[in-house]
Amino acid sequence: MKSPVRVSLIQVSYGDGESLADRVERVAMQVEDLPDTDLVVLPELWAHGGFASDTWAELAETLDGAIVRRLAAVAARRGFWLHGGSLIERATEDASRGLEGRGLWNTAVLLSPEGELRTTYRKIHRFGFGDGEPRLLEAGDRLVVTDLAFPGGAAVTLGFATCYDLRFPEMFRNLAADEGAGMLIVPAAWPLERVEHWSLLGRARAVENQAWVLQCNTAGTHRGITMGGHSQVIAPTGEVAGALGADEGVLSVEIDLQLVGETRRAFPVLRDRRLGRRNAARVGLVRQP
Q1: The whole model's pTM is what?
Q2: Quick check: is 216 catalytic?
Q3: In whole angstroms, what is the distance from residue 142 CA to residue 124 CA?
Q4: CA separation for the pair 5, 38 (Å, rounded)
Q5: Exposed e or buried b per residue across 78-87, where buried means at least 16 C-beta atoms within 10 angstroms of its C-beta
Q6: Which residues contact 163 (CB under 8 A, 6 or more apart)?
Q7: 59 or 281: whose pLDDT is higher?
Q8: What is the C-alpha to C-alpha distance for residues 210 and 181, in angstroms, rounded to an integer?
Q9: Catalytic member of 44, 89, 133, 138
Q10: Is there a contact between 82 and 31 (Cβ–Cβ < 8 Å)?
């Protein structure tokens, strides 16, 4: 019997008066002071500000910049996996600036218990309906999964998504059914006015993909927008294993990764999928005039 895995989601609250450096240090200390845990998750753009698009270009950092270095030091000292939410990534001088030449991305980072940058994911679906992210940032162009191993023998394939990605179920189906993800992490800067969608869609992604879904949102009021909070951990059965309210807080939950395989064996819905990437040739398309 493999040991359960303890996950901790930090629902960061922030306003507009705190500097980037001060916020990074405040949150880093909060992460470092957590009780024993195996995996920590931070929200989307908690440092750069989810709606502070006018400062993104000025404050963007490369992946070897101060934010990642500070989080990496914490992960190494504490010896846990740390999903650092996301940051505004700036392209290095010798790297591609992307298809649109902007050289900026909304990039999620995963740090190993040794403090190494294990994996990055550039947000595929940019929110803003032509403004904000679509106007300023490059779109990610690849799905990302990675394998995590924990003390006690538990292991899982992790699939990455960020905020607005949650509204695109085909992405999650590819991560789970095609790439084998049994855990899906979704950091976000999701506003309060649509928080019911946030909660509902998270449960839907868990049920339809029979995977653990970890949703970590921001709190507070930022650029005149009240953030939604309500971070949650959803089991592969759709059960809410733990949730927060609207205010800043930490959600720590013990999860059984073996529940993924048990759920998929007991109700093998993914096996019956006929419209996926790997079996698309089995089903044709007729477009009627």
Answers
A1: 0.95
A2: no
A3: 7
A4: 6
A5: bebbbbbbbb
A6: 44, 50, 123, 127, 186, 187, 188, 189, 190
A7: 59
A8: 10
A9: 44
A10: yes
Domain ranges of the chain: 5-282
Architecture of domain 5-282: 4-Layer Sandwich (3.60)
Spatial CA neighbour of 226 closest among 234, 217, 216, 236:
217
- Tell me: the pLDDT tens digits for 150-197? 999 999 999 999 999 999 999 999 999 999 999 999 999 999 999 999
Separation between Cα atoms, residue 83 and residue 40, nearest integer Å:
6
- Name the strand (E) or helix (H) holding 157: strand 155-160
- 33 Cβ contact partners less than 8 Å away, ≥ 6 residues apart: none
Mean pLDDT of 262-282: 82
123 is catalytic: yes
Given 61, 89, 133, 163, the catalytic residue: 163
Whole-angstrom CA distances from 235 to 68, 244, 256 are 29, 15, 9
Strand arrangement, sheet containing 81-90? 117-122, 104-111, 81-90, 39-41, 5-11, 249-255
Please list, residue by residue across 222-237, b when 16 or more beta carbons sit within 10 angstroms of its beta carbon and e when fewer do. beeeebbbbbbbbbbe
Residue pointed to by tokens 């000025």:
58
Q: Which amino acid is at 137?
A: L
In the set 61, 89, 123, 133, the catalytic residue is 123
Residue with tokens 């999964």: 145
Q: Which amino acid is at 160?
A: F
Residue of 136, 129, 134, 115 lying closest to 40 (CA atoms): 115
Please confirm, yes or no, whether 100 is among the known catalytic residues.
no
